[in-house]
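Worked Example 4.2. Consider the chain below.
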Amino acid sequence: MINRLPAWFKQDVIDEATLKISQLISEFHVDTVCQKAKCPNISRCFRNLKITFMILGDVCTRHCRFCAVVKKSKNEILNIDFNQPYRIAEIVKKLGLDYIVITSVTRDDLEDGGAAIFAKTIELIYDINRKIKIEVLIPDFLGNIASLKVIINASPSVIAHNIEAVKRLYRELRPEASYERSLNILKSIKEINPDLITKSSLMLGMGETEGEVIQALKDLRNTGCDILTLGQYLAPSKEHYPVKEFISKEQFARYEEIAYSLEFKKVLSGPLVRSSYQAEEIYRGFVEFR
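Applying the procedure from the previous section yields the following structure tokens:
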């Protein structure tokens, strides 16, 4: 277990612009993964009006050991706030956002996994301006293709689904998830609509080997995945899975080079990279590449 951050791992201090966005989010009673997952980039993103909204509540039905989001207790009954998509759309309009990222907790208690709420949120944002670009970061919906089609039919610009870790670590880190199921979700998106941009992400520093990372990249590319992000895992607390290694900048650069050799269209690889970090820039770069 490693407790001390490397000297080069610096984060921006929370400034007035960040506090204003945080206050607005609080006033509208919406959630962001930026806050709930304790993202290290929150200040620089909020300052530049880059927000990743989190729908379907702030309690997850899964118990991944690396995630800061609150986990459902055994007998807890979770609700759905059907008005939240409207409030998110209000914030989008108020701030004049033109690139939106929407993610969610995993809701295995819902028949459709929450796909309809994703679709409604997308619809309301498009009602503001059809030119707004929307990226969704979705759960695996327990492999339910009908739920996946609801997302696809809502026509987001990018559909992301993270495998998060190499295959060997799934049992320990993600006991309720499935490496193969996640790959199949990404593959199914391309089978249903080959033109949709797909994206996935891996966290590093959890004890994986270079060979395991390279195999995960190959597995992702075999699904047709277009965009890849690689970042350093940071344990949210002492109770979470410990950091086993801080990956060097040189190793991140090596993984980026390998990913491009596997023909990923866009890759972002570095210590502070997260799935939604610089999402708009990556998307714009992909479109230019295309």
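The chain has one domain: 16-289. Residues 112 and 243 are 34 Å apart (CA to CA). Compare this with Example 4.1 before moving on.
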